[in-house]
Automatic annotation (TrEMBL):
Residues 449-460 have a biased composition (Basic and acidic residues). It comes from the Bacteria. Residues 1-12, 34-47 have a biased composition (Polar residues). This is Uncharacterized protein. The lineage of its organism: Bacteria, Pseudomonadati, Pseudomonadota, Betaproteobacteria, Burkholderiales. Residues 1-47, 449-473 are annotated as: Disordered. It comes from Limnobacter thiooxidans.
Amino acid sequence: MNSSPVVSQSQIIPEPGTHAENPVSGKNGKLQPIHTQDWNSLSSSQRQTQFKDHYKAVQTSWKGIEAFLEKSVDQAAQASSADPANPGLKNLLTSRKKALQQLKNYLFDKAAPRMLDPMYLNQTREHLQDIHQQLGNDNIDLESRLGAALELVQGLDVCKEGVALNILACAKNLNMRTQGHPLTGLYQSARDELINQHLLGAVRASHAKPIFSKENEGGQPIGYKESKEPLHKSMEIHDVQALRNALSKELGLQYLPDRYINPNYEKAIGAIAKSQIPQLVTTHAVASRVADELLNWMRGTGLLSEQVLSVDGSTGKHWVVDISGNQYKDLTTSLQNEMGADATLLFDSPDEDFTKLALVSHETLTSRLVEWIGNEQDKPGSAVHGLGETFHQPVTAEQIKQAMDQFLEPAKYQLENHTHINPDVFRAALPEPVTNRLMAHLFNDAIDDKKKKKEHEDSTHTQNALHIRRPLR
């Protein structure tokens, strides 16, 4: 008996709209870079005039990203209205609205014109233009595009440098999906996510708080719990980047300077990470993540139904598609165009009913992907050639736990006994980032000060009788 079609995120993701061309100037249709010397010689208003095309390009890209999320909210609302009893759709609508509001807050608070600097108007602008362009790229499946946009929004509530890193990661993720074979783009994206996952685990382990038993207060801890301190949460991205920099040669990652990175942390804790993290990044581990994405995409199309069939002598429930109808043609075409995968990679024929194809298990698909990736890695022109994975075996949860345990003790020892390594101590001396809300507050204070000064000058009271703050200049 066929089950109801699955309602997928792709069914409530907006179709890409048309995007206005980004403003350009200079040679080869590209904006010329802003030089610090030129920037420092101008006032805020002069900068916005002199570099108006740069500001306009940033604004155009953010408007496109915002419009993309607004459409996802509208279509999520329509889906929820059509099925009001479905709590999943209601929660999805709530999360979309929250993400959109987070973006609006960021654009007002941290991306107003006077908040931007040359780095933002040069490198970050280019990454935003890439994101804007790729969100309208039909060659990337809609679910992946929406996922990238939502992940970007989640990474905006950090410092300026952290935002720049998150924007770069989003652009890189989307761009990789369009380079060469789509599956190699999926592999690269999944690999990067896997590395970040393990490095984030390592960073959180290094900040973990010890747990002591009631009988042994002050003795050896019986375990550790994740730190909930806002400072650690907001600055994790910089510590993750520090470890990425430390592992850049081993894992073929881009080295990115970051003023919030303690170079001593990068060197000392990075050395410990080198001994544990690379062994967790195997071809099989990455292929497993790619298999997850492919299978989730397949189930999310709503074109498969769950049936009891016998495949390879084993009877059980399988997701199947009828090969005699248009659904199979639509499914295989989309699969090839959007994910770069042939149907033979994901389907097997049932033992008796040859009018259907059954979706393979996660384990089977992972094994097939390992073989495919192995062949790609041997090709000199392949996008995954030379990435470094030489081990194809699975990575178990126990192996991950063991690696984190072996990272934890020496990392905690280094941080607790060598203050110069601690990233919190290093960052404590750095200035807090200025936001648009703070600027507005200071501006209102300045107006208030001028009013009070005038009141003082017009008053017969002495200066000592009034509380007058020094006006901001």
